[in-house]
Amino acid sequence: MRIWLAAVGKAKPGAARDLFEEYKARITWPFQLREVETKKRLDGEELKRAEAELLLAALPPGATIVALDERGRMMGSEDFAARMGQWRDAAVGDLAFVIGGADGLDASIRQKAALVLAFSPMTWPHMMVRGMLAEQVYRAQQILAGHPYHRV
C-alpha cells in the first residue's frame, strides 16, 4: 500500500515540517507528499473549488481518499489502525490523505472520500496537521505490527 498526502501550501523550514519529516521517515509504507498552491487570487468557495481541483489532480487515479476535516469522524488510534489494516488487507494500492487550505476542503472532496476524519473538533494549523497525521500513520503501522510503541 502506498500512502499519499496531498496538502494545500508549501511547508517552510521549522518545527512543523521537522515533525512531519521525522515520522514520515519512520513509516515503512511508501509515503509521498504532494503540495499544491493556487496561483490565482481567489476567495471563499471559489478558492476551495480551485484547491480541490489541484488536490485531486495530485492523487493517483483510483486512490482511496481520506479527507481531514474538522467536521469528520473522530477515532482513537487503535480504530484508525484497524481501518488502515482493512485497507491494506483489501489490497488498496493507493491510500490518499487530503488536507485543505485555510478555508477548509471543498464539499466535492468530502463526497469522494472513503473516510472524513477529524483529529479534534478544534481547528489546528494545517502544517501541524501534517505532522500529526504522519505520527498517527506511523502509530497505526506499529499497532498492526504488534510493536509496543502504542500504549493505552
Automatic annotation (TrEMBL):
CDD domains, sorted: RlmH-like
Enzyme class: transferase
Matches recorded under HAMAP family: 23SrRNA_methyltr_H
Species of the source: Niveispirillum lacus
Gene: rlmH
Catalytic activity: pseudouridine(1915) in 23S rRNA + S-adenosyl-L-methionine = N(3)-methylpseudouridine(1915) in 23S rRNA + S-adenosyl-L-homocysteine + H(+)
rRNA processing is among the record's keywords: yes
MF (Gene Ontology): rRNA (pseudouridine-N3-)-methyltransferase activity
Biological role stated in the UniProt entry: Specifically methylates the pseudouridine at position 1915 (m3Psi1915) in 23S rRNA.
Keyword Zinc included in the entry's annotation: no
UniProt record similarity statement: Belongs to the RNA methyltransferase RlmH family.
Keywords noted in UniProt: Cytoplasm, Methyltransferase, rRNA processing, S-adenosyl-L-methionine, Transferase
Binding-site list for S-adenosyl-L-methionine: 68, 100, 119-124
Principal place of residence: cytoplasm
E.C. designation(s): 2.1.1.177
Pfam families cross-referenced by the UniProt entry: SPOUT_MTase
Cellular component terms (Gene Ontology): cytoplasm
Protein name per the record: Ribosomal RNA large subunit methyltransferase H
